[in-house]
């Protein structure tokens, strides 16, 4: 039997070194969706390859049409049948945005002891997602160094373009089907329930993006001359957008709810028990509209949405200008649940807009693809192992939660490869993800690393026999 206590002690003994290494990784500006980020992406990929090689995995950097994937696996040839576990993380980060809004430099992290007693480090990628991938790499390192072998057959896949839409991921997965075959994929890119309670995410929404432009029969006109009589695309577009929802917050687009299932009673009951905790959202929700008949958690985890992400047209300048704009544009996103189909949702929206278009005006749409929702099994042995391992480390049960977010990879792996996915992570909404002064703390890092060791132990007990 493995000596798990020794592995955990090794993690604690080695913790300072481990934090120092993570800070080194965070200091590499691997910004995904800006051209100047390219050298940082490559440096981070090489850095990770060498760390994975150092712990005994054979690692390579694989080029894609976008940013490279770092892929590593444990040596083949073990005589014993063991489960094969895949770990996914992403090493690219969001752009820093307005530097003036950062109190801490985004790529010079150090550990700071703060007034609330936490030891935090600030930096772009500190939470999303370099600390996340570091939890399983460090857990694998410690296990290997104490036990002289990995807890199972291991595949590590680290993506470099999650923050810019994972465009080359489907082709990569298709091309590397064989390398990625596994019994379970641990997707380490998700939130805990609270700073002290772990979670496994079992419901992810799908996502469709769409851009719509309404064009008047004329280019820009003088609003004094024609305001009383000519078509105004901003007014038309605003009316169309306002009409999408009825007073109860339901979407009026025909066929929008096709494939949406009512939330089962047992699930509703379980979620209602969590509703109080949800006050920890740390976001002021006043003025928001929740669909009638649903609690906030139910709406966030199990109801589809249409969101307006941006709207533009006409005079955006500093001063007034008497103009009737020739066009107006909006960007929308749709968050899908259950069996809603991205293609049908897009077509339904386009038909809805066309049905409302005044005579003489025209409309242009832009957008394709999208991902459907994924609901993961609650009762696989890997979910049970993960839930027990997490509960042991955090001394409180793991919450099986949903999220409004999408991880297209989960759909790819579960639907395309037929692999079971378990989505776990140790970040929180309060970590300023995608925002200035993104941060993380050493307590969650240590417990995150230790959590994986507990999970490995449970897998060995329950599954490896
Ligand atoms: Zn992100």
Write a concise keyword list for the protein shown above.
2 domains; 9-stranded mixed beta sheet; binds zinc ion; alpha+beta; 465 residues; 4-stranded antiparallel beta sheet; Aminopeptidase; Alpha-Beta Plaits
Characterise the protein shown here.
There is one protein chain. The chain contains 14 helices and 18 strands. With 465 residues, it is an alpha+beta fold. A hairpin with a 5-residue loop joins strand 4 and strand 5. Helix 1 packs across helix 4, helix 1 packs antiparallel against helix 14 and helix 12 packs across helix 14. The model has no long low-confidence stretch (mean pLDDT 93). Bound molecules: zinc ion. The site of zinc ion has 5 residues, from loops.
What is the overall silhouette?
Answer: globular
Structural class: alpha+beta
According to CATH, the fold-level topology of the largest domain is: Aminopeptidase
Ligands in the model, by name, code or SMILES, are:
zinc ion
- CATH class categorisation of the largest domain: Alpha Beta
Measured by DSSP, the beta-strand proportion falls in: 15-25%
Which helices and strands appear, and what pairs or packs with what?
Layout: H1 4-13, H2 15-26, H3 38-54, E1 58-62, E2 69-73, E3 84-90, E4 111-113, E5 119-122, H4 126-147, E6 153-159, H5 169-175, H6 177-180, E7 184-187, E8 199-204, E9 206-215, E10 221-222, H7 223-226, H8 233-243, H9 265-274, H10 296-302, E11 305-313, E12 323-324, E13 327-336, H11 342-356, E14 362-366, E15 374-375, H12 381-394, E16 399-403, H13 408-416, E17 421-424, E18 439-441, H14 442-464
Parallel strand pairs: 3-6, 3-7, 7-17, 8-16
Antiparallel strand pairs: 1-2, 2-6, 4-5, 5-18, 8-15, 8-17, 9-13, 9-14, 10-12, 11-13
Helix pairs in contact: 1-4, 1-14, 2-4, 4-14, 5-13, 12-14
The structure holds zinc ion (ZN).
């Amino acid at each position: 039997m493995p000596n798990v206590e020794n592995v955990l002690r090794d993690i604690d003994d080695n913790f300072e070194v481990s934090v120092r290494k993570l800070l080194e990784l965070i200091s590499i500006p691997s910004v995904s969706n800006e051209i100047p980020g390219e050298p940082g992406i490559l440096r981070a990929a090489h850095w990770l390859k060498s760390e994975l090689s150092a712990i005994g995995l054979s690692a390579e950097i694989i080029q894609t049409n976008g940013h490279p994937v770092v892929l590593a696996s444990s040596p083949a040839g073990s005589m014993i049948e063991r489960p094969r576990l895949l770990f996914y993380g992403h090493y690219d980060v969001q752009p820093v945005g307005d530097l003036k809004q950062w109190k801490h430099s985004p790529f010079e992290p150090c550990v700071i002891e703060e007034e609330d007693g936490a030891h935090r480090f600030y930096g772009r990628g500190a939470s999303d997602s370099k600390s996340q991938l570091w939890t399983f790499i460090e857990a694998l390192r410690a296990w290997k160094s104490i036990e002289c072998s990995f807890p199972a057959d291991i595949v590590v896949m680290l993506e470099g373009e999650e923050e810019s839409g994972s465009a080359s991921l489907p082709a990569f997965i298709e091309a590397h089907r064989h390398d990625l075959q596994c019994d379970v994929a641990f997707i380490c890119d998700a939130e805990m329930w609270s700073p002290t309670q772990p979670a496994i995410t079992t419901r992810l929404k799908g996502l469709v993006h769409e851009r719509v432009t309404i064009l008047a029969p004329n280019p820009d006109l003088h609003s004094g001359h024609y305001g009383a009589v000519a078509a105004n695309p901003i007014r038309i577009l605003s009316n169309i957008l306002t009409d999408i929802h009825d007073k109860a917050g339901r979407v009026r687009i025909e066929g929008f709810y096709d494939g949406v299932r009512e939330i089962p009673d047992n699930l509703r009951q379980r979620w209602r028990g969590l509703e109080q905790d949800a006050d920890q959202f740390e976001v002021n929700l006043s003025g928001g509209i929740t669909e009638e008949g649903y609690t906030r958690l139910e709406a966030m985890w199990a109801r589809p949405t249409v969101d307006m992400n941006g709207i533009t047209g006409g005079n955006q300048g500093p001063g007034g200008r008497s103009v009737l704009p020739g066009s107006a544009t909006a960007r929308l996103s749709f968050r899908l649940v259950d069996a809603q189909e991205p293609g049908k949702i897009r077509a339904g929206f386009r038909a809805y807009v066309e049905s409302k278009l005044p005579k003489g005006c025209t409309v242009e749409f832009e957008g394709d693809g999208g991902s459907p929702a994924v609901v993961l099994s609650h009762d696989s042995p890997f979910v049970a192992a993960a839930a027990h391992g997490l509960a042991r480390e955090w001394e409180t049960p793991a919450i099986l939660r949903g999220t409004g977010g999408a991880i297209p990879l989960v759909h790819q792996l579960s639907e395309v490869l037929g692999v079971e996915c378990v989505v776990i992570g140790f970040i929180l909404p309060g970590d300023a993800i995608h925002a200035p002064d993104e941060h993380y703390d050493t307590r969650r890092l240590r417990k995150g690393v230790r959590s994986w060791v507990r999970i490995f132990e449970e897998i060995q007990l329950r599954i490896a026999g």
